[in-house]
Design brief:
439 residues; alpha+beta; homodimer; 2 domains; 15 helices; v583 fold
């Protein structure tokens, strides 16, 4: 990759000044080492499944979580509004889509980012109280992370669809599938997710847009306890057919595991390590370990990718979903070298895949040797995005992502590669510099 | 790879003369095109499972099949003798290992290569009448191929172990596992094996020494019909635990699928395409499409590889097993570029893996575009070994393989890379030349 010289932070003087102050500042370096070490040490374990209302704090009322940084109902993109309408119908808070829309617009349903509740969700990222969530315990800190369950492809809530088929599937997931998985996990005990992800990286997944191996490995791991469990034969048969039929089933667990690893790196004053990258379909937001829950946002980019027949960029919603948590954790686009076959899905060549991973080495704090890349001679994946280096080099974090139609309910129309907007990082380093007393 | 000039066929004048006659002989070229086209067109489908006595012709008496070219009892290596003793005990033809040994030595049990009965088996490759075999139908020709079922690692018959644990497992496989798989395949209908192999190649397997993805994909494919089938919950639970616990479970299906593809290429007068490479632990043997069932043999090489702690080359049996059928079909070592992670198991670096695949392009008739290699920009795997080119270039077919202890029953002691001996190919081209009238 050729990098032409350009002023740091793209000529933003305040950010350039902040950067100059922070380069080689030993307080920042030490803070970053602490954040990165905590990220490396984190051990996410899949521990259970439960309705969000029981597992996630603050979800016992009329509350709906969504992807990305905070956003008001009226500003939301089509797929996110469609998903929220579907969640309201699923919860029985309204009887038809129009009533659901009015309820959402009335403000009588709480709307908050998943990330404010320790959770993540792909695309619209909608989680309502009765939906089952995966419960991941990070065993070093004991902290919990959550994600919703993957519905499969086609007409699904996360792309804004909310018809009878979608709601019916969500009901089945909240009853049969949840019961089978609950019995299975009770029988299995916890399942460590990092070894499973590591194995999947050796099997062509980057665990963001390609989860074929991880899903197969997970199913293989779940099956013996599932069959030993008290779940009925009919329910097991339905659950297995559902999981086996969806290559993306592992995605939501990958995301929750990444959330757990990155939450471990949080709340280290002075740390410029990125702990969140997330999109709500209108804005792209990031958080740093040194600046707590503060969001730094910029307009969400439109994704350059491969479109399904009949669709083009004109049909695409801007970048959407919490799934960029995988790139934030050194996976997804950062681990593309592990997944050459993914270029059939997101575009480019296998050489591009290796080049993307190599480039990310310039903006990260180190390598995660728990996640090795065979095609790069088993080097660890580049991880721990340093917001300083992004602003300094203008080398933007690469993200593999699905593309949603801008209208609710049409669903996925492609997949491709996008980049986090520079402006998030220049804002973040400026704010971080302000938080560190002059040296 | 650097190839120094050397006389063709390593200075063997008869072979060199034969080669000179055959180079650019349009009859040979046309025969090879026919063989290769039939190999490419073959469609192996997993159709069923049955005791060898019912499925394999000539297996209704006291008959035991073994790996590699023909060999007498007294000449067999330790692991093969151990496995045959185990098979006799399993069949109940003798009550203890010494009686079984005497029976085997007496000649009252028929011994024949698997390949003479359309079958293949890894390592010792022992198949006796009551053992279940996979039944693969090649749908273009209707021809059947067979393999035994993979027992897992540790103390297993194929490495010559024959204690109570081994025989007990074989009995369970012949009853419970067979019944579950029979019910499953009845429910599933046939399962096409080429798409499954193609997918596994995109997931880091070369389907010889690495079958982690293929086993997971197979299990995922079998589960829904297994759960719908009449098999009992307890039996399904045991069968799934057994399959899920063995990364190599798919190997035997991979081998039988390769056998089916290569049998399709057989019996084309004048064809120099290799249809069999197989080892009995003493000799390495090959067959050509143009010379029918005739074997061309040479001493089996000792494998250069990575040994498990406490073992070395001195402990190793020479190269053993029918599993080189995968390389003969363009998989295994020929598809190593698909499986960079395998170098942890067989030695070398990921670059070596790509180099091995690239080198095999020089001795093969074409590319199999059903099996693409992401790391080489989705080129097809090199396939259809041309015995002429091997003899001409001295570039030997590369084989990934397990290494057995030379004594019966100790089991696998390592894995590595070996090469087919040149002498097999010089003999084969000499015989082929003799079979083709002067042009």
């Amino acid at each position: 990759m050729r990098i032409d010289w350009a002023p740091p932070a793209d000529g933003n003087h305040a950010a350039g000044h902040a950067l100059a102050l922070m380069v080689n500042d030993e307080r920042i370096e030490a803070a970053n080492r602490a954040s990165f070490a905590a990220y490396l040490a984190a051990q996410p374990v899949l521990e259970g499944i439960a309705p969000a209302r029981e597992a996630v704090s603050g979800m016992d009322g009329r509350m709906i979580l969504h992807a990305g940084p905070p956003i008001a109902w009226a500003s939301m993109c089509g797929p996110m509004q469609g998903a929220i309408i579907g969640a309201i119908l699923f919860e029985g808070w309204a009887d038809d889509p129009e009533a659901a829309r009015r309820l959402a617009a009335s403000g009588d349903v709480g709307l908050a980012p998943c990330h404010h509740h320790g959770a993540v969700g792909p695309m619209a990222g909608v989680i309502s109280p009765s939906m089952p969530v995966w419960i991941i315990r990070e065993t070093v800190s004991g902290r919990l992370s959550f994600s919703n369950l993957n519905e499969g492809l086609g007409k699904v809530l996360r792309f804004g669809a909310n018809g009878a088929e979608v709601i019916g599937r969500l009901r089945w997931m909240a009853s049969t599938l949840r019961h089978v998985l609950d019995a299975t996990l009770g029988e299995a005990g916890g399942i460590e997710l990092k070894p499973l992800i590591a194995q999947a990286l050796h099997m062509g997944d980057e665990v963001h847009n390609r989860n074929a191996a991880a899903t197969s490995l997970l199913l293989r791991r779940l099956l013996p306890p599932m069959l030993r469990s008290a779940a009925s034969r009919d329910d097991v048969t339905e659950a297995v057919a559902f999981i086996a039929g969806n290559d993306h089933f592992f995605l939501n667990l990958s995301m929750a595991a990444c959330k757990a690893m990155l939450d471990a790196a949080r709340d280290v004053p002075g740390s410029s390590m990125v702990t969140v990258m997330a999109r709500n379909g209108v804005e792209f937001g990031i958080q740093l370990a040194g600046t707590g829950n503060r969001w730094f946002t910029a307009p969400a980019p439109v994704v350059d990718g491969l479109f399904f027949p009949g669709y083009s960029t004109a049909d695409a919603a801007p970048d959407l979903g919490d799934s960029a948590i995988t790139e934030t954790a050194g996976l997804g686009g950062f681990a593309m070298a592990a997944a050459p076959a993914i270029v059939n899905f997101v575009g480019g060549t296998p050489d591009d895949a290796v080049a993307n991973t190599a480039a990310m080495g310039h903006i990260t704090l180190g390598r995660n040797t728990a996640f090795t890349l065979p095609a790069m001679n088993f080097v660890g994946t580049p991880a721990g995005i340093d917001a300083r280096r992004v602003a300094d080099t203008r080398l933007l974090p690469v993200i593999n992502t699905g593309i949603a139609h801008r209208k609710a309910g049409i669903g996925q129309i492609g997949a491709g590669i996008t980049h986090a907007p520079l402006d998030c990082f220049t804002q973040a380093v400026t704010a971080l510099a302000a938080s560190v007393p002059d040296g």
